[in-house]
Amino acid sequence: MDAIDLSRLQFALTTGIHWLFVLLTLGLAPLVAVLHTASAAASDPERRARRELQARFWGQLYVVNYALGIVSGLVMEFQLGLNWSGLGEYAGNIVGAPVALEGMVAFFAESTFLGLWIFGWGRLGPRLHAALIWLVALTAYASAYFILVANGFMQHPVGHEVRGGTAYLADLGAVMANPNALVALGHVTAAALVTGGLAMAGVAAYHFARRTPHTAFFRAPLRLGVVVAALACYPLYAVGDVQFRGIAEQQPLKTAVLEGGAEGAAHAPPAWIAVPAETMVALGWVLFFAPLIALVLLPRDLLVRTRPLAWAVVALVPLPFIASVCGWLFREAGRQPWLVYGELAVTDAASPVPAAAVAAVAASLVLFTGVLGALAAADWVIIARLAHRGPDGVRLGAPEPEPAPAPHSVRTP
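User: That's the sequence. What structure does it adopt?
Assistant: Structure tokens below.
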């Protein structure tokens, strides 16, 4: 493999791993906000306390995923300067601003709101405190939007003019309202809600399958997760269909590969993208019907009382992650050999690396992938342990223990 192949593989692996963090972050944030809002709005003290503990329990899982996801994002962004300097030279005037805005939103606004929410338990008023987690969710989706604006330009370049081999901004509105980015945002939003809903329902179902004594604690989150996933499954399908038709119009060679045409086979190098695309579609049908079936089973409490059904809900948890990674592969790898479609080839976007330095690129591949792989493993292990402990293991927002009284000195005569 040459330096370009190694750079592509490195970015694919690190971005794919980072996306798993992002998907769960986007999916859980609004659900935690709903639970916290229900706590703030409850008038009955017992109900308020239970809703608050639910918000703290799932908020704890969210915080772990968010913190490790931020670190994985930092690792990923280093590669833009290291491996893809040609992209910055050609399209930096266009994609630089949304990438910078994403960094400001994620590392300043979102992190600030989340910090206030984490340390605001028992210190802020209930309504203000609940408003903070909604701001966290809002800024999370704003961050995703700015990234998709940059990515949308690479998929479907609009609103610019090329002078001297460099792209310059000509129409800001066209770049920010790029249909490719907006439709992708809708698809990502629906996918995240299905993911977050099934993750919440899966954790609750896991405890029901193990005959938890905390039935009242997990029943409402189970229902919330199933309802949200069921409501988002049709938009996921509908927006995905719109996105695919847009891709067929903007990048015809990509769809030619799926259709098996001679033109696609001759001109589109990554013919293997048909495999992740078909996997995504197959899993998409499962994710379409499974939440609807679970929704039908909710009124009779069958997911609570029937172990096989509860374990079936648990088994659904990894499916949206697999489908999403397959969709990402289809979206990104399928436009080869272009990095900015029709304008900047991958070979021109890659940083110039002499043959003697290929070993350094290979070393960075191993290092970056190893770091992100370790972060992903740590994330899932910690989340699984916290989820397994249930409400008894909640530490987020727990009152600080009172210091033990100082021992009294005893005087001897």
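The two ends are 86 Å apart (CA to CA).
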